[in-house]
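Appendix B. One record, verbatim.
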Amino acid sequence: MRKVYSRLREHIYTMNAERLRHGEREITHDMISEETGITRATVTKWMNPKKELDRMDVQTWLKLAEFVGVEPNDLLSIEDSGERKSLSHQITTDFSAVPVMG
């Protein structure tokens, strides 16, 4: 069975490293919540890469992807048979076996 996990934390860590190099404050859960309009509890859930996203609101997914500046698929990973891959990788793999007609 496939499970879906968030990759938000790794994107925020990357953004924070860049911000610290420029002498800026780190991004906090409160900052994400204020800028996106998403509740702090939801942000906290998305920041946990070990917690399966059993329910996911599409608007939340899109807002968080926009906040970190990535495509929505880059914000999720899929675990299938114990192996975790980014959603973008999974989509590419799933469609690579589809024959091209023409």
